[in-house]
Amino acid sequence: AVVRVTGRDGVERRLDATNGCALMEALRDANTGIDGTCGGMMSCGTCHVYVDADWLAKLPPKSEDEQMMLDAIGELVELEPGSRLSCQIQVSEALEGLSIRIAPPV
Ligand code: FES
Q1: What is the pTM assigned to this prediction?
Q2: Does residue 47's CB lie within 6 angstroms of at least one atom of ligand 1?
Q3: Cβ distance 2 to 96 under 8 Å?
Q4: pLDDT in tens for each of the 106 residues of the chain?
Q5: For ligand 1, is residue 24 a contact (CB within 6 Å)?
Q6: In the chain, what is the straight-line distance between the N-terminal and C-terminal CA atoms, in Å?
Q7: In this structure, are residues 26 and 14 in contact, taking their beta carbons and an 8 Å threshold?
Q8: For the domain with range 2-102, which CATH number is right: 3.30.110.10, 3.20.20.80, 3.40.630.30, 3.10.20.30?
Q9: Is the CB of 82 under 6 A from ligand 1?
């Protein structure tokens, strides 16, 4: 699915992310500043993104573990209602046009 990604520089780009992959992987491989250091184990928080309000309800809800990791990085960076770990978002056709912003580094 093609997703719209606003970088830390405020510039929006379109990214063709492979369906079935974690969004984190697509963001990492496209050098958007997402590191995904833990590889999707919900233990690093370096995959934090802000999901546009319009899209938030279309994503599966956060697990307890995802929320715990977000709470932990919330000590370091600003959380927003759209804060999600991109390693927990699986790319699919249903996410065509998904709009996100890359959060500040942790
Ligand atoms: Fe580490 Fe998502 S990649 S928490």
Answers
A1: 0.97
A2: yes
A3: yes
A4: 999 999 999 999 999 999 999 999 999 999 999 999 999 999 999 999 999 999 999 999 999 999 999 999 999 999 999 999 999 999 999 999 999 999 999 9
A5: yes
A6: 27
A7: no
A8: 3.10.20.30
A9: no
